[in-house]
Amino acid sequence: MTVSVAGRPIQDANAMSPLGRLALAFIDGGPEWLSWAIADLTARYEFPDETTLVGQVQSGLHASRFALLPRLELMVSPIKLMTLGLADLRMLAKAEGGDDSAVAAAQVTRVLSDHQLATRGDLAAGQALLSELGLAASPLFQAMDFEDHLALWQLARMAPPPEETAPALRQEAADFAAAQARTPLEFCDYCNVYLDLGTPLADASPAQRSQAATGALQTLLPLMFGVLDCPQIDGLPSPSEVDQAVSNWLARGRQIGFARLSQAVQQIVRHTSFQGQSGDAAQKAVRLYLQSAQAFLAANRPVQGRLGQDGATCLFALEAGSLRAELHVGPGGVISLRDFGPRTPSSTTTPEEDPS
Question: Which residues of the chain are under the pLDDT cut of 70?
């Protein structure tokens, strides 16, 4: 046989699990490739598991992690599809196959929400936000990737409610962030920095709010250069593998850092007592936050992993008492701190499949 999974020969598609077979069917040309590979005696393909098989078939045929589900207007990695479970994956297949009933639509909406999958319509909300803010033509957003679109969608969902001062404050935040950022992800971070600092200053003038945000960046950014060091791991890790990597890293006297400077500043502003202090006071706020974060990571274990829509990123949550942390594992296996602060009802974890 020319195709094997975990050392087991695959003689036809029925030799795969129902979940793997269905995930493969979402790949344009996937079932046809498998039939060809099985029949071609000159080829040989060995995969450690079905998840790797569908991921490599998608990348090999289309040079992209994302399979396109055109009826649902959804781009998603087949690796992510493997984590949905057979019942939910069958529901997507039914809708993608042409079932446009109200019942099917409601079930699809539930599946997409449960697994945090963003469709074209969802991602368009981020672009609509840029248009509303007068930033659609900004060169900052000229070459966005999926992660950028996803971050803008999340920013649009977190926009302040339409209270009397909210629209003006949101516009101020966007203008500030567009001037400071050099990437779309930084734009989202700096928007949140401005909103977190500016909301308590609702009675102040726009110039005073802008001055407060500018001062925060001038103070905090130079203090963040030392908090970008992160451990790295191969492949899609399980919670236990992330835990081991983090424990080994901390045992060497190193700290889990952030993916980018702007994210580190955003976390300091949101989760510390920083209110525009400078000098020793600012350094103390940063030091205490980082020490608390590292102590929390050392004392707690990831309780779940959520695979990203791209099939290459993972989020791991750690919770204890009133606190919660979130570790992000990027496509290259870099483990960074994405969030650490008070636990809120909206951040409570829900059961999720191990991404490995």
Answer: 1, 159-165, 345-356
Long-range contact set of residues 67-74: C-beta below 8 Å, sequence gap at least 24:
67/26, 67/27, 67/28, 68/28, 69/26, 69/96, 70/96, 71/95, 71/96, 71/97, 71/98, 72/96, 72/108, 72/119, 73/119, 73/120, 73/121, 74/112, 74/117, 74/119, 74/120
Q: What share of the chain is helix, strand, coil (3-state, %, to 5)?
A: 55, 10, 35
- pLDDT at position 78, please? 98
Nearest C-alpha neighbor of 235 from the set 313, 317, 318:
313
Q: Say how many CA atoms lie within 13 Å of 198 toward its Cβ.
A: 28
The Cα–Cα gap between 131 and 138 comes to: 10
Query: For position 97, what pLDDT does the model report?
Result: 95
The alpha carbon dihedral of 146, 147, 148, 154 has a sign of: positive
Domain boundaries of the chain, sorted by first residue: 3-115, 120-219, 224-343
Query: CA distances (Å), 50 to each of 15, 64, 85, 140, 159, in order?
Result: 11, 18, 14, 39, 40
- What distance, in Å, lies between the first and last C-alpha atoms of the chain? 26
Residue 345, amino acid: P
Q: Do the Cβ atoms of 321 and 273 come closer than 8 Å?
A: no
Q: What is the distance between the alpha carbons of residues 158 and 328, in angstroms, rounded to a whole number?
A: 20
Rounded Cα distance between 200 and 195, Å, is 9
Structure confidence at residue 76 (pLDDT)? 98
Q: What is this structure's pTM?
A: 0.91
Q: Residue 164 has what pLDDT?
A: 56
